[in-house]
Amino acid sequence: MKIESITYRGGTILIGQFDEDAETLKSMLTNFKAYEAEFKQLTITKRKQEYLAARLLLNKVFGREVVVYYDENNKPYLQGAPEQISISHSKNYVAVMAHPTHAVGIDLELRTDRVKRVYKRFLNLAEQQYLYDENDNSYLEIAWSAKEVLYKIIGKAVFDFSNELEICPFQLSDSGMLHVLHVSGSRIYRLHYFQNETYTLVVGVDKKIKL
User: Fold this and answer.
1) N or C, which end of the chain is more exposed by having fewer CB within 10 Å?
2) What is the DSSP letter of 169?
3) What is the pLDDT of residue 160?
4) Phi then psi dihedrals of residue 203, to 5 deg
5) Taking every pair of C-alpha atoms in the chain, what is the biggest distance, in angstroms?
């Protein structure tokens, strides 16, 4: 598995691209026994690969064997440990983010045209005006991932992406910063994005910011 590491706002991000099959990934996961019962419930080969690859990266990011659990909001956490984590996967890519104290969110999406077919579901009318481009999906892809990141940080309070979260206008680049308003929470979050020909990546840490 090819792995890229990024340091961000006191946290660590690992991005892995895997081509190993599930059996190989399982043999690489030294604490697989801790997941064996849960793993047996998985029936789709792709899901098995994602599951194993994510846990391999989490062991690597912490430099020790860790076990992932999920709370009632389906947010991953490490039982009995203060570190905060987030997980994302798309096709043969998996990304994890860890921070020693603050809640985090990460979303990685391979670049496709799908977002152009569904953007009206997650953007309000004002956002559509300044984010939609007939010839370029870049803004839409970043906006979708940004809202996914905040859902992972905040939880079910932002289930309505088009009304609860509003993307502030931002300048497009290969990497950059954007701000997102959580409407009912009356709070603005600062996120960062990275975009190349293959994928869009957006990350965030739940820290108060000065505007």
Assistant:
1) C
2) P
3) 86
4) -135, 155
5) 51
CA dihedral 63, 67, 68, 70 (to 10 degrees): -150
Closest CA to 8 of 196, 197, 142, 149: 149
Task: Say what the alpha-carbon torsion angle 150, 156, 158, 159 is, to the nearest 10 degrees.
Answer: 120
Q: Model-level pTM?
A: 0.94
Helix, coil or strand: residue 22: helix
Where does residue 117 fall: left (phi above 0), alpha (psi -120 to 50 degrees), or beta otherwise? alpha
Stretch 106-128: mean pLDDT: 96
* Cα 128 from Cα 27, distance rounded (Å): 46
Q: What is the CA radius of gyration of the chain?
A: 17
Q: What's the CA angle centered on 195, arms 96 and 49, to 5 degrees?
A: 35
Q: Can you give the pLDDT at residue 184? A: 87
Give the CA angle between residues 110, 35, 52 to the nearest 5°: 25
**In whole angstroms, what is the distance from residue 6 CA to residue 12 CA?**
6
Q: pLDDT for 91-109, tens place per residue?
A: 999 999 999 999 999 999 9
Residue carrying structure tokens 């993307």: 167
